[in-house]
């Protein structure tokens, strides 16, 4: 019973959120993101969720916050793919979100 209680206390510490804030300057970002035209070009397929409670895990469910202090990651959208750390494609359905290139997962943790 005691082990279960300890496990439940640490779950919030290991669950990575996807609260995102878009910054105005590259130097203020954690990750530089390029939005691709086709799903096949992406590292991550992203679905924009409507509430912060849906932005759990590291599976491309992003909630854009209004204040950078609330964000898990600060991103900057670049104009060229060659300047990006991560290429994303925004999907229309939540079930389509997810990683295509697992080697880039560490960028959003």
Question: Characteristics of this structure?
Answer:
alpha/beta; 109 residues; six-stranded parallel barrel
Q: Please identify the structural class as seen in this structure.
A: alpha/beta
In DSSP terms, counting alpha (H) and pi (I) runs of 4 or more, how many helices?
1
Domains (count): 1
Helix-strand pattern: HEEEEEEE
Question: Residue-averaged pLDDT, rounded?
Answer: 88
Beta-strand percentage range: 25-35%
User: What is the helix fraction of residues, given as a range?
Assistant: 10-25%
Shape: globular
Terminal-residue CA separation: 30 Å
Radius of gyration: 15 Å
Q: Report the uncertain regions.
A: 4-16
Total strands: 7
Query: Largest beta sheet, briefly?
Result: 6 strands, parallel, barrel
- Within the largest sheet, what's the order of strands? 1-4-3-6-2-5
Summarize the structure.
With 109 residues, this protein is an alpha/beta fold.
Account of the 3D structure:
The chain is α/β, with parallel strands linked by helices. The protein has one helix spanning 2-14; strands at residues 19-22, 31-35, 44-48, 61-64, 73-77, 86-90, 98-99. The protein has one domain. The longest helix has 13 residues, at 2-14.
Secondary structure elements and their pairing?
Layout: H1 2-14, E1 19-22, E2 31-35, E3 44-48, E4 61-64, E5 73-77, E6 86-90, E7 98-99
Parallel strand pairs: 1-4, 1-5, 2-5, 2-6, 3-4, 3-6
Antiparallel strand pairs: 3-7
